[in-house]
Amino acid sequence: MSGDRTPNRRTPATHFADMIHCAFDCMGTRIGFWIDAASGVRANAALETGERMLHDFDRRLSRFRPDSELSALNADPSARVAVSPLLARLVNAAIGAAHESDGLVDPTLVGAVERAGYRESLAGVKPAPLEQALAARPPATPARPDPAERWREITVDTVSGTVCRPPGLRIDSGGCGKGLAADMVAQIWSQLLPPGTRFVVDCGGDIRVGAMAPDASPPQAAPYEISVENEQVGPGELTLTMTSGAVATSGVGNRLWLDAHGQFAHHLINPSTGRPAWTGLTTVTAVAPTALEAETIAKTALLRGAEGARKVLRTHGGAMLDYSGAVEIVAPAQIPDHETIEEAA
Questions:
Q1: pLDDT tens, 36-50?
Q2: Residue 343 lies in a domain
């Protein structure tokens, strides 16, 4: 999440095919909302509510804002700190991501990320050329967890509303923030909108879609087609087709810069070295029931490298790109009835 002070470029709500759409800047990225136009005035209310939620989420939980709740927690000298339910939910999500990834998605790497050069928001900053970074990168090596496992020292007591951790151990929301935010918007929309309403929440590539009613008829029953694009993949080359759930993409190209030593760096850190991870993969896209799960799986898969990524992605399906730009589709071991994944022709 960003905490940047750049103007909020917001597009007015407009009709996009059979959906009402709006977009705005938040959390250091571009947010996109789509809601079935058939839901009428409820759609406009849901759009406004979702936008307020995300701006509040960013204001309170960005590590780039010195006045945020997360920054206050990280600066507090006490071992036990009272926190809001929102911050407790974020910390719980961060610990859960660390558990699910066996420590690869580590929320305690704030110092390592800062030493790599990511001290301030990169919102609006053009990333360094990926092609040049790949030409100069070190040999591909799968990331490994930090043996110290400092994230295990963090506990959340939801009853008392406190977080316990050794003073000085800072927590970063980057490993789960956008996914959690997308899920929270989807959760409130499921209460504000009629059952079975089609919608899409896109938090900078962490995407949650609304489950369609079982008895929906065409054209409402048409599945969502979500295109994955980056420097290596053009429009339409890779498309995820799904009717519910979430998809998230993690990659080294969107936040890529030259560090103080003139070396290419990015925000995906190898916990065992404290340096940016170069694992042989540039991008991983994962499918999962929630955006938080999809984001965690995508980051875990990229950090493990190709061999490990195949194992991680088999649960729900996904895709990965290597340094050459070759796309590999990983089908789920058992394809659930509600989602499929395919490569576009």
A1: 998 888 999 999 999
A2: no
